[in-house]
Design brief:
Number of strands: 16
Order of helices and strands: HHHEEEEHEHEEHEEHEEHEHEHEHEHE
Strand content: 15-25%
Shape: globular
Number of helices: 12
Distance between the termini: 34 Å
Radius of gyration: 24 Å
Length: about 350
């Protein structure tokens, strides 16, 4: 929350009234506006009810002694990026309010989190909206809309960073079923990466075309991927992997073994790369989403260590079909922009 609103007693009173006026109770009562959680209140939620540092309660949450799934909404002020409730993924009705200087500060603060599931902004300034959607690190971005209730196909759902698993294919999106395929490809020496990227991954799409709400799915370079090159890798396979990096506009991070062939060394001569042992590579995986090896990793110890860092190992030969291979280097991002105001479509009413 920016300083102007954070220090505005009138705004805070309205925020407080919004939470306290909700009718809390069982879903069997028609007057209930806020029902029980889907599971008993977790230890993380209970810990978040303790105050850190200079935190204070605008609205203090309460647990229901007769219903382990029921917790009233809480609003905590004075939260900082170091606070437990700021850095912990909490599935419950707790709003942790952090004071920031401006939108740039808000984006920097949000991006310090290891998670990146959803993020939202309410603004009528197109400059702020553009800055937000092009800077904040989250898999689902909402503009002038609540940040829950994603709809299948309309808002394919899935996060970035630690809010992602595997290659991050979004539930309800066009790539989700690919995760369940066993892809067997005929031997080939060519690929169609450039054509596939141009036609499918280079532009955002809105397949629903609703009035009052844009829902775009776009693809961004992952930039948290390491390419590992070893002597056993085939030269043409390495060329395909490097082509995929270039075409998807990824930041290059190449790790290579000390015993590469001359042709392999020449292939990466002009690219940022590091000669290192596999142990040295495994020591720097924090914050790395994916490791792309050029061939199969046979060491179970290496596989376990990669998994322990929550990184995804990709260790088969590259697919020549870009519809599959390029997904390893991209992150899908859903952007929902609700552009109506109280049902009024504004300038878009005649478009």
């Amino acid at each position: 929350l920016n300083k102007a609103h954070y220090n505005d007693p009138s705004f805070m009173e309205k925020l407080k009234d919004t939470a306290e006026s909700l009718v809390i109770g069982t879903a069997f009562h028609l007057e209930t506006q806020f029902g029980p959680l889907t599971s008993p209140v977790t230890d993380k939620l209970k810990q978040s009810m303790d105050l850190d540092g200079d935190e204070t309660w605008l609205v203090k949450p309460r647990l229901d002694s007769s219903d382990a799934n029921l917790m009233t909404p809480g609003i905590k002020l004075g939260v900082t990026p170091k606070s437990y409730s700021f850095r912990t993924e909490l599935f419950g009705p707790l709003l942790s309010v952090c004071c920031v200087d401006d939108i740039q500060d808000a984006i920097r603060t949000a991006n310090t989190l290891p998670y990146g599931l959803t993020s939202g902004i309410f603004s009528l300034d197109p400059r702020e909206k553009d800055l937000w959607k092009n800077s904040v690190e989250a898999g689902n971005i909402y503009i002038n809309r609540n940040v829950t209730g994603a709809v299948v196909q309309r808002q394919p759902f899935g996060g970035l960073k630690k809010s992602s698993f595997g290659i991050g294919s979004k539930a309800g999106g066009p790539n989700y079923v690919i995760q369940f395929l066993n892809i067997i490809e005929k031997e080939t020496h060519t690929h169609n990466y450039k054509d596939v990227f141009t036609k499918l991954f280079s532009t955002s799409t809105d397949v629903t075309n609703l009035y009052g709400e844009d829902n775009h799915l776009r693809y961004l370079p992952n930039n948290r991927i390491i390419i590992r090159i070893e002597k056993k890798d085939l030269l043409n396979d390495l060329k395909m992997i490097l082509d995929a990096l270039r075409i998807t506009k990824n930041k290059v991070d190449i790790s290579y073994a000390s015993d590469l062939t001359t042709d392999q060394v020449n292939l990466i001569a002009d690219l940022p790369s590091t000669e290192e042992s596999i142990d040295d590579l495994l020591s720097r995986l924090d914050g790395i989403d994916r490791l792309r090896f050029g061939s199969n990793v046979t060491s179970q110890t290496v596989r376990v260590k990669i998994s322990s860092h929550h990184s995804t190992l990709i260790d088969h030969r590259p697919y020549s079909e870009g519809r599959f291979e390029l997904l390893y280097y991209l992150n899908g991002q859903s952007i929902t922009h609700e552009y109506h105001r109280y049902g009024n479509l504004g300038d878009r009413a005649t478009s």
